[in-house]
User: Fold this.
Amino acid sequence: MLPELGSCYYPEHWPKDQWKSDAEQMVASGLTWVRIGEFAWSRIEPKEGEYNFQWLDHAISILGEAGLNIVMSTPTAAPPRWLLDKWPDMSIVDSQGKTRKFGSRRHYCFSHEGYLQESLRITKMLAERYGKNTYIKAWQLDNEYGCHDTTLSYSKSAAIAFKDWLFAKYKSIDVLNEAWGNVFWSMEYNNFEQIDLPYLTVTNANPSHELDFKRFSSDQVINFNHSQASLMRIYTDKPLIHNYMGRITDFDHYAVGQDLDIAGWDSYPLGFLEDRSNQDEDFKKQFMRFGDPDFQAFHHDLYRTVGKGRWWVMEQQPGPVNWAPFNPEPAAGMVRLWSWEAIAHGAEVVSYFRWRQAPFAQEQMHAGLQRPDGIAAPGLAQATQVDKELKEFKGIQQVQSKVALVFDYESCWAWEIQPQGKDFSYFELVYDYYKALRSLGLSVDILPPTQKDLSDYKVIVMPGLMHIDKALELAIESFKGVLIAGPRTGSKTANMNIPKQLPPIVPGIEGTVASVETLRPNASIAIEAGGKFNCWMENLINYNNIIERCNDGRPAIIGKKNRQYLAGWPDQEALKRILSDVCLAQNVSITQLPDCVRVRDTLKHRFWFNYSETESIVGGIKLPPSGVIWESL
Ligand code: GAL
Assistant:
C-alpha cells in the first residue's frame, strides 16, 4: 500500500455549510484521511448525560461521502468544565502541590478513578455509536499523553494509588526499605500507609523512591490507555492509534504501544528546534527554517518500533506554530521534505495539523494548510505535490537496518533523578550517538531495552542504559556483531543502587568503574586518536585491554574489537571516528554527510534530504535547497 496524506479537522469550529466544501477541497488537494473529534467533548455532551450527536453524525457523513477516511478520536484530553463540578479533585497537581486549573486542556490526573470512569463512559458512547461506521477507518485514543507536563501528578488520588502500587510490588515494608536503602537518613517506613509521593522534601528525595514514582506514573498512563483500548475493541475492529509527541519521555511508550495497532506522532520540526533542543544558538539559527536534520528521523525510527512496524505522522507542521519561543516560517519546500522523510522512514500516513488556521482561541496564530479565510497557505501546494509524487511509486518497503540503538525510558528517568552533573541528559547522550550514525549516512533502528533478538544487526550502540535486563543480556551474549556501550551503561541495579560487583555490568566487558566525575561545559578531556569527552568521565580499572586512551593517560575505550566500552560522553568528532571504524570493520558501508544532508534507505531506494537554503552536492548527487531526491538502489 502506498502512503497517504491527511489533515486534522475540527468541524465544530466552522459553520455547518462549510463542511462539504472543506471536504471536497481536501480530496481535491490529494488528502485521503481526516482526523476529527479529539477535543469535542463539550459539544458531544454539553451537560452531564445530555448528548448531542447529530452534528457529529452529519459531519462524519459529509466527510465520508466526499471520499475521506475518518480517524475518529476519543475526546478525553479535554474534559469539559461541568465534569470538574462533578469531580472537583480530578485535576492534575504539580510538584509544588499546585492544582492545575481548567481553561486549556489535559487538566486531568491519570490516577483519578472517577475521571477514568467518565472517560470510559464517553468512549463507550462513541464506540457504540460509531464503532461500525464504515466511514471511520481508525480511532485515535485521547491526544498526546504527557503533553504539557501531565504525566506526573501529585494529587491525593495519585498518593493513594502509589501506595497500592508499592504494596503490589514489594508486599512487605521491610523489602521496600531494603530495596530503597531507607536506612540512609533514617528514612525507614513502618508501613505502606506512611509513604508519600516524593515531592516537597527538604532536599532530594531518595532516588529509588523517585524512580518508583516515575514507574508508577508511567503505569497509570499505560492503564488509562489500556482501559480505553480494551473497551474500544469490543465495538470496533478498526486500528487504534495514539498520537505521541517529540521528546516526551516520562512514560514508557513501548508499553503503551502494546495495546495499540499503530503509533502516531506529532511532528513540529521548527517548534521542536526552538523549544526542545539543546543545540547552541548558531545551530538554531542555521536550521531555524528547516528543523534539526535528525530530530524528526529519530522519532520516526522510535515510533516505528513503538508501533511494532506500523506508524503515522498524525500531525505535521504546515507553517509557523504558535507555541515555541520563536516561530519562524519554514523555508519553501520544507513541508514537502518533512513529509517525504516520514514516508521514507515508513510512515503509512502523513497528516497535517491543521486543515484551516483557527481565527480564535489559543492557536489562532498557528498556521494551517489554509489561512483562516480559506485561502491556501504555502503548505497546501507542497502536500499536493507530495501526493502527485507518491503516485510514481508502486510501494515503499522498509528494510531492517544494519545498525541499531537501544533507547530506554527508565534510563531517562534514572538520569533525570540523578544526573550527577547538571548537563547530563540521557536523551541528549543517545541522540548524540544517533546523530553521529546518521551523519555517516546510516539508517538506524531504535530498539527497546527488552529486545530479545539482535542477530540480524552488525552494530548495536547502547549508551547510558542504566540496567541490562535478562532478555537483553542473553541477546548480547549470542550477538555476533559489535556492541558499543558506555558511558553509564550497566551502572545500577533495577532498584537504582550501585551493584555489588561494580559497574559496568555489561556482558562481554571486563573492567571496573573505579570512580566517575562530571565536567563543567568549558572543560573536556581530549582523546589521543581524536575528539574529546565532555560532561561525563569514568576512571576505568581492571580491564583486560585498552583500545583507546585519553591524552591524560586514562583509558578512553576498553574491551575487545566486538565489545567496546567508552569511558565518557564523546563529542561528534570522536563518535564519528569510532563508529565509522566499527562500521568499516563490519562491512557496513558509510557515506560521510555534511550537517545539513541526511539519507534514508528503503528496499529499493536511497532518499536524500537537504536541510539547507543552498544547493548541496554529495557523492555526485546534487540536492536543491530544501530538496528531496530519491535514487534507485
Ligand atoms: C499538538 C496538539 C494539537 C495542537 C498542536 C499545535 O501538540 O496535539 O492539538 O495543539 O500541537 O502545534
